[in-house]
Amino acid sequence: MEADEFPRAKTAVTIFKHDTVYNADSVEWCPHKPNTSFFVCGNYQLTAEKGAQDLGPSETRLGRILLFSIDFFQGLELHQTIETAAVLDQKWCPNQIDDASILGVVNANHSLEIYKLFNKNLELVTKFLVIDDNSETLILSLDWSTGKFDSQKPQIICSDSNGNIHLLQLANNELIFQKTLHAHDFQAWICGFNYWDANVFFSGGDDSIFLKFDLRCGDLPVAKNKLHEAGVTSLHSNKSREFVMVSGSYDEYVRLWDVRTFKAPLNELKMPGPLWRLKWDPFCQKFLLAACMLGGVHVIQANVLDNMMIADSYYEHKNIAYGADWSFLEPQDAGKFSAKANVVFGSCSFYDNLLCVGAIICDFNSDSHDKDTSATNE
Predict the structure, then answer these.
(1) Quick check: pTM over 0.85?
(2) Which of 10, 74, 89, 5 lies closest to 37, judged by CA?
(3) Sign of CA dihedral 155, 159, 160, 164
(4) Residues 354-365: pLDDT tens digits?
(5) 93, 131, 145, 83: which is closest to 114 by C-alpha?
(6) At residue 58, does pLDDT exceed 70?
(7) Measured distance CA(141)–CA(94) in Å, rounded
(8) What average pLDDT is seen over the chain?
(9) Of 102, 105, 98, whose CA–CA distance to 83 is shortest?
(10) How many CB atoms lie within 10 A of CB 253?
């Protein structure tokens, strides 16, 4: 789809911009009160270093974790910059642990790191070397098991560039390794739990395969789907509709699935570019925020039975929009930043080194989606 064919922006406006200096690839908003004004942006910078004599230059993957907050009076404030290995993915634990907001980060040093938000700063709690070798394997994504049900000892799932899936548990401020499964022949771009049943999780790979696992049934996938026409890059379980999962792919399609059948999507929508991230909204789980790499950032009205549609679009990013996330600010607080908005979101683009905070209007109270639930209560 050419740029002049893109859906037109309707209500989306930019509130703040920030030059991240390093390439930016993830935005994750803290879901817990009173920290809903805080979010992180992850960076991944590939740099050339002078190598040893006769060996030529070598490449180093550098990263940063940038902790921000937004305020109507103070604006966009950068509180902290953490120098680390290149950041591939970040996720806040959906529930607080010991009354603290907890952030998980995976990076190019084979590690999963756990941080605690305290006094407007992130403090390292613990870290675990997921892959203990000298390979260039990257930990590509992570997800927490507590998207629906709270736990003080949540599980964490990670995927890597060798096609493996790793399961760990966070308990008493320590990461406990559980097992590694081989899932894909190429990069396992994404993994995610079924939030309604943490025994079940999913993965998507560069082999265009979408897999379902159930820990009660051993280490092999219990279902395999090959309908994606390119790499599977994004997954997200819906915490309000038990059997609904969304997937995104390089093939530019967003697909909704009933995970009980897994044979064909319930619905699908062609997007203006390859998908990298998809996030259900935190208020009613009837809208999706989609980062479409070279095709902008979009809000999708994600009906199960009726036609899916792009409800709004945002085109501030020019070169690979990788990161996008909804804020958890209440609508009345979002409206302070823009009189024509009830929700704030964050997004970032890689080669632009650009972080944006925007605002849009979403009809979260609409009854037009209620009949969607019939597809998940059979």
Answers:
(1) yes
(2) 74
(3) positive
(4) 999 999 999 887
(5) 93
(6) no
(7) 16
(8) 92
(9) 105
(10) 19
Residues 62-81, mean pLDDT to the nearest whole number: 96
The closest alpha carbon to 271, from 321, 328, 206, belongs to: 321
Other beta carbons within 10 Å of 367:
7
Which of 28-31's residues contact partners 24+ apart within 8 Å by CB, and which partners? Answer: 28/90, 28/91, 28/92, 28/103, 28/323, 28/325, 29/92, 29/325, 29/326, 29/327, 29/328, 29/346, 30/92, 30/101, 30/103, 30/117, 30/328, 31/92, 31/94, 31/101, 31/282, 31/328
What token pair was written down for 49? 């270093």
User: What pLDDT shows up at residue 5?
Assistant: 56
Alpha-carbon distance 274 to 313, whole Å?
Answer: 15
Residue 89, exposed/middle/buried by CB under 10 A (0-12, 13-18, 19+)? buried
**CA distances, 291 to each of 1, 163, 276, 375 (Å):** 15, 23, 6, 26
Length of the chain in terms of residues written: 378
The answer to whether 24 touches 325, Cβ cutoff 8 Å, is no
Give residue-wise pLDDT tens across range 323-346: 999 999 999 999 999 878 899 999
Terminal CA-to-CA distance of the chain, rounded, Å?
A: 37
